[in-house]
Amino acid sequence: MSSKSNMLGVLACLGILASTTALADEQVILQVAPDVTKEGSLGWQGYIGAKVYFDDINVRGGVGGKQIKLLAVDQAGDISAQVRDLVKQHNPVALFGTVGSAPVTKLISDKVLDNAQLPLVGPLTGSTAVANDSKNAGFVFMTRPSYATEIDKVMRQFATIGIKKMAVIYSESQTGHELLDLIKSTGAKQGQSVEIALPEPKDPAKAAALADEVMTKEHQAVLMAVPAETAAAFVKRYRQQGGAAQLVALSVVEGAQLAELAGAKFAHGTAVVQVAPSPRNDSYAVVREFTTNYRKYGPYTEEPTEAMMEGYLAAKVIVEGLKRGGGGRAALARGVSQISSYDAGGVSFGFTPASRSGAKYIELSVIDREGRIVR
């Protein structure tokens, strides 16, 4: 078989290929994210987590007698135009798992969600502007806390252990700038200051050099709001240079990937902000459930990640919305809106008219000597 045929077979097995129209006995959940069809990407991890849950639901008969079909498409060009076209082609009942703040704000400003009555559930962002935009973001349902909530927790924790001077490395994106601004404004209220803030270089090969610049300023902690690859390069170089401050990977950093890329020797002791339980933390019922289903339906070649867990939880919210509201986009949006207190297995969700974020879970964990993320 040719390599092209092989690849098509793999994509078909994952459910990434689909017919151009939804069948009468299925409900399509659409995911549009960068490189979502590329194994290992953040969007792909969210896809796998959601698919694992949907596969289990489908084996049990689906929802309302209909199977759930998860269709993942690589984001390309203007996301608003792309989603409009995909809605016409596939008639999805929901959009899921977009990555970053910018795609969500564009979909809102272009009225794509409103005009199509299309709920967006589980975007991989904690955008505070979106979370607080009850007027324009009525079809957005975030399943992770806002960045404001996240940064408040981190800075309060710093205050309790006497950390006042910080360095920040951030991505040149809407999300990166929001996190930097929140760190500065939240810290100022508690007598904490950002001594140096460095943007992620466009050349990945220069990421490690950020550590050299940070070392020139007095600091007690370094907050990282960059992709895992950049964070790992920084961590490794920083520790090699003798840097001893507390390193913190914010929720935009995939902690397990950071540990793998940097190596346990250098990543050890790095704090990780988690917005979903670690797949290894079986004290949560939802983690035990996820583990069971992942063994049945997940890719055996991949260790489960927090991003997969986040996708799994978002999928549970979607199914709960379908059960409450019934089939169809507007019905699903109504159903999710009715979730005021839903226990997904130790992790709770609840939406209100005033907030587009229905999540409260935030955990500060740490990478241990073996490279594992532990509480």
Structure, described:
- The chain has 375 residues and is of the alpha/beta class.
- It has two domains: 3-145 and 284-349, Response regulator (Rossmann fold); 147-274, Rossmann fold.
- The protein has 15 helices and 14 strands.
- Strand 11 and strand 12 (348-349) form a beta hairpin.
- Helix 2 (42-59) crosses helix 14 and helix 7 crosses helix 8 (174-188).
- The protein starts with a helix and ends with a strand.
Topology (elements, then pairings):
Layout: H1 3-14, E1 26-33, H2 42-59, E2 67-74, H3 79-90, E3 94-96, H4 101-109, H5 112-116, E4 120-121, H6 128-131, E5 140-141, H7 147-160, E6 165-170, H8 174-188, E7 193-199, H9 209-214, E8 221-225, H10 228-240, E9 246-249, H11 255-262, H12 264-267, E10 271-274, H13 285-297, H14 306-325, H15 329-337, E11 342-343, E12 348-349, E13 363-367, E14 373-374
Parallel strand pairs: 1-2, 1-3, 3-4, 4-5, 6-7, 6-8, 8-9, 9-10
Antiparallel strand pairs: 10-13, 11-12, 13-14
Helix pairs in contact: 2-13, 2-14, 7-8, 10-11, 14-15
Short description:
This protein is 43% helix and 16% strand. It is of the alpha/beta class and 375 residues long.
Counting H and I runs of at least 4 residues, what is the number of helices?
15
What sort of overall outline do the alpha carbons produce when their principal axes are compared? globular
Q: Structural class, from helix and strand content?
A: alpha/beta
CATH-assigned fold name of the largest domain: Rossmann fold
CATH class of the largest domain: Alpha Beta
Radius of gyration: 20 Å
Query: Separation of termini?
Result: 47 Å
Low-confidence stretches: 1-21
**Helical residue percent band:** 40-55%
